[in-house]
């Protein structure tokens, strides 16, 4: 259920912490001094419930009861779950300090959302129906938490994709048990002490205004989590062919070079593969074994991956068959592809093949030297284009605010 | 419960100011999350072990706690080496263990254990009461501090209550199994627990109101920074900055 320290990536941890701070701010406002002992005792009960291992088939699982807390406490479940997890982290080292934000958000948000939703249709004159509804909310809360846990892992790196699938699957049987136990607890409380739930005999409970806020928070969480990998985890690789060897660089979206990273080069025609390692500035080069298209895959650790393709045109050296009609700058205009033709803007082929080869070599060397700054400039431009700028971040925030605004507008219209 | 057993002791870390310990734990945990250099992480792990040795916590208890933490890591070790792309180290049928996967697992294991050990050395060596007190001094919202303190205060009461109800159920022939009756029984046990804790919470609140509680917790004692606290601050700063320097100078990620 809760993720240990040192596994999730920094953007995911930050997103979780931000959402939890928001949730806590809302939750704390709803806890009046008179509620503190009640919320604290239910927090303690939540903690004790998480120590209870219930048998499922050959194995067992501990209860979470986030749906039940959502039904009983509403928004106050946020601080309750936070404190419960903090105690577990300090006392038993379950979870941890850095993952407290993500874990609280993952458990509390689905619980509060489904809990408040179920509460709206529960009433004292329909105890069985209400208990079933609460049970469904309890099950869905666990599934929601499982999904969020899987997402947090999956977004932390490609390596976690299988782990996150397994974890989500493991939540399905727990959700069934959790639904049954939550339903039975609500049934029990309705018989024994209905004032804990605080329901009335109305067939429709007034929809809590903060329902809107929960939904917005949920959306915000997803919106914050989803782009984290796309923007912050990006690595880029660029390569070009300059006549006799393929050169390129690998760097992160921040502009930091990907040092000592593995590259897998594949000749798409022959299917041959070989490996390279980037140097101290993220640079690499290799001599292609022959013409054709090469695919370069970069692995920059922790599941960061990028690919590019280079077209190696048939080399003219040795064959003497020069193509003199190649325009000089056409090739350098599209850097990821080939540059080799620049080298062949030599004179005519009146002279013998040997002489031509020599001249070609000289021209090649001079041109390579002259074109070096242009190449570097092009590469800088391409890097600047791919980097996540402040503008993008502001645009992303604006996007979130905009969606929240639309949502607030719709809900205010509904409220009349 | 054996919750606070690590908090008993006379070592340097046990006696240090909880405020300093909380901040040091936060700084070190957050920094380790950012570190991606295996060498720096291994050095951090060694420093964490050194700090644990200073605390002189019962080794068997420590081993038990760390074993629980590593259960999830074992699960990662079973999956990630297979699911990560990279060079094959070992191939057996469809299973392909890659160097990158093994490296990633090693990184995570070292990182996780280092953070947990720092937290045991710094946080578990304080009683929850003094931690709550320190949180209050560190300007954490009072509602949160009070919830933290009360939850802790009643945890044991509820634990005992639960054990009593469970014993009563077992005496009446309750046998846990994968059936509806078991789940219903557990639900009723928990329901009873909730009802009793609700009633107790109400009584506690009334008792507090009778004694003039108005939502404020007054602090009667205040912490005082001693030379050993400055030593801990210095140690944390040196460790944190040298780890950053190591990662930066090695230029690895």
Helices and strands, with pairings:
The complex is a heterodimer of chains A (416) and B (253).
Chain A lengths: L9 H20 L6 H14 L3 E4 L2 E4 L3 H8 L3 H16 L7 H22 L5 H28 L6 H32 L17 H23 L2 E7 L4 E7 L9 E6 L5 E5 L5 E4 L5 E8 L5 E8 L17 H4 L19 H34 L3 H26 L1
Antiparallel strand pairs in A: 1-2, 3-4, 4-7, 5-6, 5-8, 8-9
Helix pairs in contact in A: 1-4, 1-5, 1-8, 2-4, 3-5, 3-6, 4-5, 5-6, 5-8, 6-7, 8-11
Chain B lengths: L11 H4 L2 H17 L3 H18 L3 H25 L4 E5 L2 E4 H24 L5 H10 L4 H30 L8 H31 L16 H24 L3
Helix pairs in contact in B: 2-5, 2-9, 3-5, 3-9, 4-5, 6-7, 7-8
Task: Explain what this protein looks like in three dimensions.
The complex is a heterodimer of chains A (416) and B (253). Chain A is an alpha+beta fold and 416 residues long. Chain A folds into 2 domains: 10-232 and 410-415, Orthogonal Bundle (Arp2/3 complex 21 kDa subunit ARPC3); 235-380, Immunoglobulins (Immunoglobulin-like, Sandwich), CATH 2.60.40. Chain A has 11 helices and 9 strands. In chain A, a hairpin with a 4-residue loop joins strand 3 and strand 4 (246-252). In chain A, helix 3 (66-73) packs across helix 5 (100-121), helix 6 (127-154) packs antiparallel against helix 7 and helix 8 (210-232) runs antiparallel to helix 11 (390-415). Chain B has 253 residues and is mostly helical. Chain B has 2 domains: 5-132 and 223-250, no CATH class; 139-210. Helix content of chain B is 72%, strand content 4%. Chain B has 9 helices and 2 strands; from the N terminus they run ααααββααααα. Chain B is flat and about 65 Å long. Chain B starts with 11 loop residues before the first helix and ends with a helix. Chains A and B meet through helix 1, helix 2, strand 1, helix 4 and helix 7 of A and helix 2, helix 4, helix 5, helix 7 and helix 8 of B.
